[in-house]
Amino acid sequence: DLREIAALAADHGVRLGVDNTFASPALQQPLAMGADVVIHSTTKYLNGHSDSIGGALVANDDAYAEEIGYLQQVAMGSMLSPFDAYVVLRGTKTLPLRVQRHEANAQAVAELFADHDRVERVYYPGLPSHPQHELASEQMDGYGGMVSAEFDADVPALQEFVAALDHFPLAVSLGGVESLVEHPASMTHSELSAAERAEVGISDRLLRFSLGVEHTDDLLEDLSSALDVL
User: Fold this and answer.
1) Res. 192: pLDDT tops 90
2) Are 50 and 173 in contact (CB under 8 A)?
3) How many CB atoms lie under 10 A from the CB of residue 98?
4) What is the pLDDT of residues 9-55, one digit of tens each?
5) Which residues, 6+ apart, have CB-to-CB distance to 217 below 8 Å?
6) CA distances from 226 to 39, 149, 188, 194 (A)
């Protein structure tokens, strides 16, 4: 609950930073809910075409923004190249349209998983069964393009499932026009111990899907065929 966290931060005199990469500005505006700074991996939805690496901090205070800018330009020198800046700006022009398709595909995939007997749990705030569905509906303008699911399958079986997919390359990125799948336990969160992963709810049976903008029927058919492998 961003508004509640922002109020708590203000009461204690600390700044609130929100990583808004998964939602993007098209679906959520943390500054309007009391955040002091918003963080984006521009590599993801803002760029949208998986051909640029970058990041951005957006502040609601000019003096704070100037302080951040000084650190970036003078102290660290982490400047985006002109071409990367160009492709990110180009990507923002289609952001609202792309996010609509990302979300539509994610909702369809989440519903497919929710009705399948080999899927034990689906993590997607667009499902009414999600414990924070009402909160997401209140503070967001949509539910995004990221779906995670725990399968009734061991790691070798999940490897067969992933290998059977045609439209979901195995990759750790997200937010591009192409759909991707990744296994957090052995990829993005492999640096954590098994106990640490269990503590934060990342099981060996969990897969994360970044839904792209392909035709929904193609994605559902691909996933259904791969589920048959299980």
Assistant:
1) yes
2) yes
3) 22
4) 999 999 999 999 999 999 999 999 999 999 999 999 999 999 999 99
5) none
6) 36, 14, 22, 27
d(CA 164, CA 175): 22
pLDDT band at residue 73 using 50, 70 and 90 as cut-offs: confident
This model's pTM is above 0.90 = yes
Residue 209, both tokens: 């899907």
Give the residues across from 119 on adjacent strands. Answer: 151
- Token representation of residue 116: 């399948």
For β-strands 146-151 and 119-123, DSSP reports them as antiparallel
Closest C-alpha among 124, 47, 52 to residue 91: 47
DSSP lists the bridge partners of residue 39 as 19, 57
**pLDDT score of 79 more than 90:** no
How many residues are there in the chain? 230
What the block records as the tokens of 201 is 């709810």
| Percent of the chain at pLDDT exceeding 90 | 96
pLDDT at residue 153 in the model = 96
